[in-house]
Every structure is written in C-alpha cells, then in structure tokens.
C-alpha cells in the first residue's frame, strides 16, 4: 500500500525529519488561504499515487497569492492515469544548492533492508545521463542491530557531499529507518533531500510503501484506504479476504492461489482470450468468502460466464461446494458455471453439487478453460 | 529415505487445536504421518484425536517430551514469525510454515535467526512436504500421487497439486514433493532443495516448477549448470503473460516482473535443463 505524500510527510514531521511548511487543501479557496498563511512562493502538489505527476502538470509553482486560486483550479481539473485529483498539498517553495537521494527498501531476495544514497536526486534522476554519471552507493542493514550512524558515514565518504553535512544527513537516515521499521514499510524514500544556502537539509518529497501483509497492525492506514484509487470491486473483495484482479474479457474466474491464477490466465491467452476478472480466494477459504466472490462475478454485467478452478490443499472442497450452493439457490442470472474442483474432500463436495443444472464439471485446467471459452465463442 | 522428512521423522503441529490445524492434523494422521504432538498455548496437558496426540503449551515442552524434529505451522500470519523463532530456539530441524502472507519485516528477523542456526524453514505459504506412503507434512491432498523416483519442487502450492495430478494420470509417482512457498520472503530456496535432491538416492529426476518474480529460479539455473548431474525438467508458469496488457496483476504487477518468466526459461535452457512449455507436456518429457 502506497501512502500519499501528505501522509508520509506527517510521519516525517512526527519523527523530526526537516520538511518545508505545508498544509493539505481539498478545494481552490483553501489553497489560496493556505498560500497566504505560509507565504508565497509555494508549490501546489497534487496528492495522487500514480507515477508521472510532475510531467502531467500535477506540481505547480505559485509566485503570487493572487494566482493561487486559478492554478489550484487547473490542478484540480487534472486526470492523471484516470485518477482525478482529490487534494493538493500546498508547500513553501525555496531555492537550494544541491539534491540527494536517500532511500531504504526491503530486498526480498536477500531478506534484509538495504540503504541507498545517491548524489543525484529529484528531477535529475529522470535524466538518464546525469543519473548514470552520479555515484550511487548502498549497503545491507542487519535487521537485528538496525541502522548505525557509522554505516551511513561509510557511504557518505564515497559520494560528493561536504563533511559538515554528515551529521545532519546521518540523523535523517536514522530517523527514516525508524519510520521504515515502525510502519512496516517496504520502501521509505526521500527524493530529493536538498541542501539550502544555509547548509540545512530538507526532505522535499516523501514516499512510503507499507507492506500489505502487515496492514493488520496498522489500522490507521487501512482507515485512510482510498476506494477511488483501488476501484469498488477490489475494495469489496478485500473485505471478503479475497483478491480481485480486473481485466477486459467476458469470463469471470475464481481460483485458489497465485500459481493456479497464472496457469488459468496463461492458458486463456494461449487460446487468444483474456478473463473479465480473476478472483484469488487464497488457501483455506470458507463458504462465505466463496459465496461472496461468486456473487461479485454473477452481478457483474461484463461477466457472461463463470470459471471456477480450485485444487484444494488447505482449501476444503466442501466449503467451496457450500459457497456455490448458497449463491446459486437465489441466483436469477443463471449464468453458466464451468467448474474444476479437486483435492481435499472433493468426493463429498461433488455429491453436494450433483443436483445443480447450471454447472459443467471438468477434470483438468486445460479442459476447463477450453470448454468455457468455446461456450463464449458459440454464444456470440 | 527421501529428503527433510522420512518414516523416522517425529512431527509436531503448532496450532493443533485451531480450525485449520485440527482439520489438517487429522488428515495427516489418517495418512499415517508420524505426528507425535502439538502445541496450543493454554491447552497444555490436553489430548486430541481420541487421546492419541498430546498437546503442550510450548514447543520446548513438546520437544522434551516427544523428541520431535519436524514442525508444521497452522497459526495466523501475525503469530507466524514468533512460532518459527520458537521452533528454531527449541532445536526443531525442519520447520514448515503452511501459513502465508507473513509480514515482510517479521520474515527478515526470521531469516536472520535461521542464518545463525541449523534449522531449515520451508515456506511461508508452503503446502509442505509429501513423501507418498510415508508422510504428508502439510496440506497436500490425500492420495494425489503414488511413490516413484521423480522429485517435484515448486513455489506455488496449487501448481504443485496440478503437476502431481498430471503425473499421477500418466502413471508416474514421486520420491518427494516439496513446496518451497510463495511468500515474498521464504526460507529454503530452489538451490538448497536441489542440493538435497542431488544427494537423495531415491530421486532419479527432478521437476522444478517456478513462476514470475524474484530471483530464485535464476540462482537455481546457475546451480543446475554447475552442480546438478541428475536430469532437471523445468516449467515456469506465465510465459504467455509477458507484455503490457497484463498490468493489473496488482502488487507484483510490473512489466519487468512478468518479463522475468522469459529470462528464467532462457536461463534453464542455458543451464542444460529440459524445459516444458506447457504444463501438460511434463509427463512425456520425463525419462521413462
């Protein structure tokens, strides 16, 4: 889960990482009021999680208070990758001498955090040549010990930065590591960290991605979860403990496990088709999570038929059969359901389902996908 | 006999009285898996399954009483790291985490503890280890496949069932099936598992099933080239998914992520492994 810049900056402020004065606005009048409070020049930054915010015109400089409302209206009208702008961070603008990059990310292959520092930060990161010429240094962090000040210093001696800034830089890195750790981040990044004429370091941007698998201990982030960003169906699916992936076809799919999702999808593409959606019910699904998933697909107008591909290990096939029965009993749509249901307790599950007319049952993924796609082709 | 578990293994279940733990422990027992005990904090002293299996409060107590050396975890994600660390400290040699979706930073602490110990962690998000006729330590479906000399190692649980099902239909049995787990950070990787299978006298050929994301298959390919003499047949799911249209597979959805499938298939071919382009082709590509 990605945090908005203003949320990440609130964590920075709490931790004592220096940031420019800023406030969040949800309309143009508020923007103007904040601009006059903070004092121009200010930067208006669209709060949006899509990449390419700057290029799309989502970051604008306001020199004079009089133009704040006009520019804010322009930013609020933007759509960046189909996302509308809901709020703007109004931030004090100032000039600086140099930009750095400072980031901590979770390296999944080695299973440890990695600290990275570069002497090129901000906009220059996007210009390939200057980024390649700049020195980028990194090191692994021992999760048991945490980040130590000398480790930051070791990296700083290898890049172009004045020794008078080492102490400030080290303090910010240590605070960033605290934020990374206490919020279960997979990425905590300052791009860019700038040096002012007064030799002060400031974090101009803030990016924090929180590990989705740890959200159960970060309720505050879940409360601020933005359904407009994830889509209504994804949002509903999350509530049922399943994962919803939307595509553009006509076949709604329910599978258990990412591996089987990939296989089902892969076979559809090899037969020149794509699903309407794939719902991964994961392992150990219950009657109710199966029923809710099937309901989502049956009520979706783009879904013409449903494919269910379950190989139960952790998943008890009886729960799947129970879920199918409970939904189809009151189903008015009568969309055809193509099913492959094998694994734990499959015999008794098939007995439960034997009276259901709208069901066609298959023994392998290949036969299942082929039959469902043939049906859609014939009914066109 | 086999790798990681055998007929002499002494298996315990952490979370044996929970909904999933109870259900799958009973299944394992019905398949004659050598389960000797279980843990459930606060329920120490009780017996489950008609007095067959003793329950303990802590893994330490359980190991002292039963001499267990394998543990299978059926606990919620938030408690998983704690239970793995408890098993490591109690001297359990093979720890299998069926539970998945464990917080990344919890797993970093577990990895750190594993580096300092002799324990091997399988998973998280692993279906476990299946040695047909001997033991089913985890959640592999009953009677899915018979004994044989082909070993299966897979990241995905459901894909491993799919492959075992296909092998079984073709009349092929397995020496062992191992699911290394499909969580972002896992314990044992493909490479370590291949090392064990190379030394296993009951395994003649190896089927490796990978997928998009991560480096584990690439490391495995290099290792196959350098050190594996047994025939390896690799299958990497998702070959047709490469390309921009696939973007909505959230959280692990980058173009590069799916491109990684192609890199992996090429690496396996370069390493001298056989490559199955379709999952149905696996049986006919094995040596008979």
Structure in words:
The complex is a heterodimer of chains A (380) and B (288). With 380 residues, chain A is α+β, with helices and mostly antiparallel strands. Chain A is built from 14 helices and 18 strands. Chain A has helices at 5-15, 28-38, 68-76, 128-133, 149-156, 166-182, 219-223, 227-230, 232-239, 258-270, 287-298, 317-328, 346-353, 365-378, and strands at 22-25, 42-46, 59-62, 79-80, 83-84, 88-92, 98-107, 112-118, 136-140, 185-195, 201-203, 207-210, 243-246, 251-255, 275-280, 305-312, 337-343, 359-361. In chain A, strands 7, 8, 9, 10, 11 and 12 form a six-stranded antiparallel sheet that branches. In chain A, helix 10 (258-270) links the parallel strand 14 (251-255) and strand 15. Chain A is elongated. Chain A starts with a helix and ends with a helix. The model of chain A is unreliable at 124-128 (pLDDT under 50). Chain B has 288 residues and is of the alpha/beta class. Helices cover 35% and strands 21% of the residues of chain B. Chain B has nine helices and 14 strands. Chain B has helices spanning 19-30, 59-66, 77-89, 104-115, 157-169, 190-199, 216-227, 255-270, 282-285; strands at 11-14, 35-39, 47-48, 53-56, 70-73, 94-97, 120-122, 128-131, 135-138, 147-154, 174-179, 205-210, 232-236, 274-275. Chain B has a seven-stranded mixed sheet, sandwiched between helices. A seven-stranded mixed sheet of chain B has the order 9-8-11-10-12-13-14, with helices on both faces. In chain B, helix 6 runs parallel beside helix 7. Mean pLDDT of chain B is 92; it is low at 244-256. At the A-B interface, strand 13 and helix 10 of A face helix 1, helix 4 and helix 5 of B.
Features:
heterodimer, A: 380 residues, alpha+beta, six-stranded antiparallel β-sheet, six-stranded mixed β-sheet, 14 helices, 18 strands, 25% strand, elongated, B: 288 residues, alpha/beta, seven-stranded mixed β-sheet
């Amino acid at each position: 889960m990605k945090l908005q810049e203003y949320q990440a900056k609130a964590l920075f402020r709490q931790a004592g990482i220096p940031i420019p004065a800023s406030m969040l606005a949800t309309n143009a009048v508020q923007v103007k009021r904040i601009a006059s409070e903070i004092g121009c020049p200010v930067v208006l930054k669209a709060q949006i999680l899509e990449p390419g915010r700057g290029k799309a015109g989502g970051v604008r400089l306001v020199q004079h208070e009089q133009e704040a409302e006009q520019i804010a209206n322009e930013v609020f009208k933007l759509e960046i990758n189909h996302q509308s702008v809901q709020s703007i961070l109004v931030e004090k603008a100032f000039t600086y001498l140099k930009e750095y990059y400072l980031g901590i990310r979770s390296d999944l292959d080695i299973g440890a955090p990695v600290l990275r520092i570069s002497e090129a930060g901000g906009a220059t990161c996007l210009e390939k040549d200057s980024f390649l010429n700049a020195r980028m240094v990194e090191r692994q962090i021992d999760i048991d010990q945490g980040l130590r000040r000398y480790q930051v210093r070791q990296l700083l001696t290898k890049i172009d930065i004045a020794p008078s800034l080492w102490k400030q830089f080290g303090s910010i890195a240590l605070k960033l590591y605290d934020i990374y750790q206490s919020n279960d981040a997979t990425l905590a990044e300052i791009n860019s960290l700038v040096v002012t004429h007064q030799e002060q370091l400031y974090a101009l941007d803030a990016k924090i991605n929180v590990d989705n698998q740890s959200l159960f201990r970060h309720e505050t982030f879940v409360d601020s979860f933005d359904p407009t960003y994830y889509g209504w169906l994804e949002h509903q699916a999350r509530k049922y403990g399943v994962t919803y992936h939307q595509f553009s076809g006509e076949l709604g799919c329910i599978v258990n496990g990412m591996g089987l999702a990939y296989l089902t999808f892969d076979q559809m593409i090899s037969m020149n088709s794509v699903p309407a959606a794939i719902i991964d019910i994961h392992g150990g699904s219950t009657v109710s999570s199966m029923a809710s998933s099937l309901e989502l697909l049956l009520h979706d107008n783009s879904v013409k038929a449903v494919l269910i591909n379950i190989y139960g290990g952790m998943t008890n096939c009886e729960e799947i059969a129970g879920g199918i029965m409970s939904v189809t009993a009151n189903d008015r749509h009568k969309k055809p359901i193509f099913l492959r249901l094998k694994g734990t307790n499959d015999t008794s599950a098939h007995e439960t389902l034997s009276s259901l007319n709208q069901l066609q049952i298959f023994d392998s993924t290949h036969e299942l996908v082929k039959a469902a796609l043939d049906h859609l082709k014939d009914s066109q | 006999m086999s790798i990681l578990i055998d007929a002499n293994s002494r298996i315990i279940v952490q979370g044996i009285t929970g909904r999933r733990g109870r259900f799958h422990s009973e299944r394992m027992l019905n398949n004659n898996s050598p389960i000797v005990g279980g843990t459930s904090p606060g329920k120490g002293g009780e017996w489950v399954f008609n007095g067959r299996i003793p329950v303990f409060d802590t893994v330490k107590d359980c190991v002292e009483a039963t001499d267990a050396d394998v543990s299978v975890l059926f606990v919620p994600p938030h408690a998983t790291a704690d239970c793995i660390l408890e098993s490591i400290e109690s001297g359990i040699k093979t720890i299998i985490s069926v539970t998945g979706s464990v917080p990344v930073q919890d797993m970093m602490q577990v990895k750190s503890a594993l580096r300092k110990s002799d324990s091997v962690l399988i998973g998280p998000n692993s279906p476990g280890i299946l040695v047909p006729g001997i033991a089913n330590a985890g959640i592999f479906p009953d009677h899915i496949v018979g004994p044989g000399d082909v070993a299966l190692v897979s990241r995905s649980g459901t894909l491993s069932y799919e492959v075992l099902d296909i092998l079984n239909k073709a009349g092929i049995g397995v020496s062992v099936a191992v699911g290394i787990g499909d969580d972002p950070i896992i314990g044992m990787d493909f490479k370590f598992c291949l090392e064990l299978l190379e030394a296993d006298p009951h395994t003649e050929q190896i089927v490796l099933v990978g997928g998009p994301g991560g480096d584990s298959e690439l490391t495995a390919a290099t290792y196959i080239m350098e050190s594996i003499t047994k025939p390896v047949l690799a299958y990497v799911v998702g070959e047709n998914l490469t390309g921009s249209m696939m973007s909505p597979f959230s959280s692990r959805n980058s173009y590069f992520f799916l491109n990684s499938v192609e890199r992996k298939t090429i690496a396996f071919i370069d390493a001298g492994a056989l490559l199955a382009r379709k999952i149905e082709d696996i049986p006919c590509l094995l040596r008979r």
